[in-house]
Amino acid sequence: MPRTIGFAKHDHDDCVQTALARADMHCANAGLRLTPVRRRSLEILLAEHRALGAYDLLAHLSAEGLGAQPPVAYRALDFLVRAGFAHKIEALNAYIACAHLGVNHTPAFLICRSCRSVAETDTAPAQGRLGDAAKAAGFTIERTVVEAEGLCPACQPESAS
User: Fold this and answer.
1) I need a surface site. Which of 53, 57, 71, 106 has the fewest CB within 10 A?
2) Does residue 124 lie in a domain region?
3) What's the total number of domains in the chain?
């Protein structure tokens, strides 16, 4: 099972480069086009380690001469989500790079309400109470979105640690 990624210290440059290499390989194997705008959008999401709205992404792209119109960002984000390279954080109407790129998983998101950093972890929605309720109702779970809001370790008061 993938580990929770987002709040812990890690080699950030290696994290970004490894994810970009996985994305390149996935696109090559799947016949997908990771255009310069799509690749740069993924790189920006990976570098931020927090949720970004489409207009936040567009500001980065525009500053780099990669497009100034909203459809540029929305098309790139749509591709990244469909390819499994990014997730939409519904509570924030924003996007984050997938921390487990290339791994089949059911993500859950821990969202800091103060700094907007987001950690991604893995869940098993067909198990536990939700799975039991679905089974009792004769329902088959195909997709879930789990988002928890709170404070990350860096934003918690000293007394809470």
Assistant:
1) 71
2) yes
3) 1
